[in-house]
Each structure stands twice: as structure tokens, then as C-alpha cells.
Design a protein that fits this description.
single chain, 293 residues, 6-stranded antiparallel sheet, 16 strands
């Protein structure tokens, strides 16, 4: 069986082995009319146009409007989909590779844990503007574009991309749990979105995470279950994580008056301490080391 999907300007065709044969971009403005003409129907669950067993004529008719971007080999697996394109690797300072990898991981996790039910958000990478958060999911559709109503945002904080691959994946799944609850109308946080309640805990434990309670922020401390860890190892055996990340340290401008005081922040609860020299301090409440900012 062959299935064809069109979503966000991209055409994907899958054969019976669920392999991606090619993708296309630059679809015309009248895409809906062209798709419907050739039998594509709107799939609300996956937010895409869908056609089961498309004829060669239908695919050919659509492809003449698009520019073929890439063609992947047969039996493409999930681990292949997160590999960056060769041209992006050459520029190690580009976030394009990082975001593309996060987007691909989202697709893999959405299919594996959530049965493909999550809306596709905008994946962003930006500096941590909070007190040590690893990431966040907006509670409103912060981005507007071709899709009516817009898109939620999942942001991964740039300072924390240097963590082990499994921990970064855990953060992404954590934010995907928030997205799942948003879609289902479940309020899983209070106190301006900082306190994670039992509804978050209940949902997170269904989707590959273990949950511990923090005295200040509730059930926010999540880790991958042992089963999820083993699945990640099998799915991505050679994955080493992200090499590009933002430096956590504050660089003081030269020529001005410098301070001898150092600022340290607990990445879990946000408690701040200051010292006049370099120190190694552990937060007794959270059990994690303070980080210099």
C-alpha cells in the first residue's frame, strides 16, 4: 500500500514499508484546488491532506508544480531522518541543523508515543530567559502563518543543548506532554504556568517519563523511563547529541569596571547565590549543582 501526504508545503509519499521516497517544496498558492482535483482529502487528525494508494498520474500531476528537494533511499528509518543535510554540516555556527534535528525528533516521538495526534508546533531555540528552565511550550498559538489559527511553540533553551542526548530528548517529550494537555483541554499548570499539578504527572507517566515532585514547582522533574532509554538506544545507536549550544557564562565587556562577585543559580528551583570566588555548591532542596551565570 502506498500513501501520500501533503502538509506545510511538503509532499511525502510512503510505500508499504513506511519509507519516505521523496519530498517536495514550493507548492503553488492554489494548492487546495490542485490537491482536491487529484483526490486528496483533509485529514484533521494529522493536519495534512491524505490520499491512499495514489495513482502514478496523480503524483506526477502534483509533482510538476513542485521542485523535488531530496530523494531518500529505501527503508529509511527514524534514525536516518534526524541526520542533517550535508550542506548544513559545513556551517557549524548555523542553528538550521539544530532546529531541523529537533523537528525530526518531534516527528519520531509524536508517532511513537502519541500516535501522531499532536499538532506540529514551531520548534524554536533561544536563550533561557527564565531561572534555569530547559524549555517551554506556549499556552497560546504564538506563531501565525498558512495554517488557520496558528501554531503553538516549543522552545528548547540554547544553554542546555549541551546535555546528554537522552536528557535533551526528555525535555522535548516533557514539552510535548504540555502540548498534548493543551490539545485535550487539560490545565496541567498553575501559578502563571510554573507549578506542575497532578494532571501533568498523570499524562507524563503515560508517555515515557517518570515524574518527581519539587517543593516549589510541583511535578516538574521528569526523566525518561528505563523502557524509553532502551528504545532511544535502539532507535539512535550512534546519536551523540547536540554540539552547538549557547555558553552559560556571562562575558563581561573589556575596559569597564568588573565585579568580583559571581552569580550561581539552581537550574531546578531558580534559587540564586553569590560568591566572591569560584565555588561548587549543591542545592539541598533539588539535589543538583548550582550553575554559574
Amino acid at each position: 500500500m502506498t500513501n501520500a501526504y501533503f502538509r506545510h508545503g511538503e509532499l511525502r509519499v510512503y510505500n508499504r514499508d513506511n519509507t519516505k521516497s521523496h519530498s517536495c517544496v514550493a507548492f503553488p498558492a492554489n494548492e487546495k484546488a490542485v490537491l482536491k482535483k487529484h483526490g486528496f482529502k483533509w485529514d484533521a487528525r494529522n493536519h495534512s491532506y491524505f490520499l491512499e494508494n495514489p495513482s502514478d498520474e496523480a503524483i506526477a500531476a502534483i509533482e510538476k508544480f513542485v521542485k523535488v528537494e531530496t530523494e531518500l533511499p529505501k527503508k529509511t528509518t527514524a534514525k536516518d531522518l534526524i541526520q542533517p543535510k550535508a550542506e548544513t554540516v559545513e556551517n557549524g555556527a548555523s542553528l538550521q541543523t539544530v532546529i531541523a534535528k529537533l523537528e525530526s525528533l518531534f516527528e519520531v516521538f509524536n508517532k511513537h508515543f502519541f500516535d501522531g495526534e499532536l499538532e506540529t508546533p514551531v520548534i524554536a531555540v533561544s536563550p533561557d530567559t527564565t531561572k534555569g528552565a530547559y524549555g517551554w511550550c506556549t499556552t497560546w498559538k504564538a506563531w501565525q502563518g498558512a495554517k488557520e489559527g496558528g501554531y503553538y511553540e516549543i522552545n528548547m533553551c540554547a544553554e542546555h543543548l549541551s546535555r546528554p542526548f537522552g536528557e535533551t530528548c526528555g525535555t522535548l517529550i516533557h514539552e510535548m506532554v504540555h502540548l498534548k494537555n493543551l490539545q485535550d483541554g487539560v490545565q496541567d499548570c498553575s501559578r502563571s504556568g510554573k507549578y506542575h499539578n497532578k494532571r501533568f504527572k498523570e499524562t507524563a507517566e503515560k508517555y515515557g517519563l517518570t515524574v518527581e515532585k519539587d517543593a516549589k514547582y510541583g511535578y516538574c522533574r521528569t526523566k525518561l523511563t528505563d523502557e524509553t532509554v532502551e528504545w532511544l538506544k535502539a532507535e539512535f545507536p550512534k546519536e551523540g547529541g547536540f554540539t552547538l549550544h549557547r555558553d552559560k557564562k556571562i562575558r563581561l565587556a573589556s575596559g569597564g569596571k568588573t565585579s568580583s562577585s559571581r552569580k550561581y543559580v539552581c537550574p531546578e528551583c531558580g534559587t540564586i547565590i553569590r560568591a566572591t570566588k569560584e565555588v561548587n555548591v549543591t542545592c539541598a532542596d533539588c539535589g543538583v549543582d548550582f550553575e554559574e551565570r
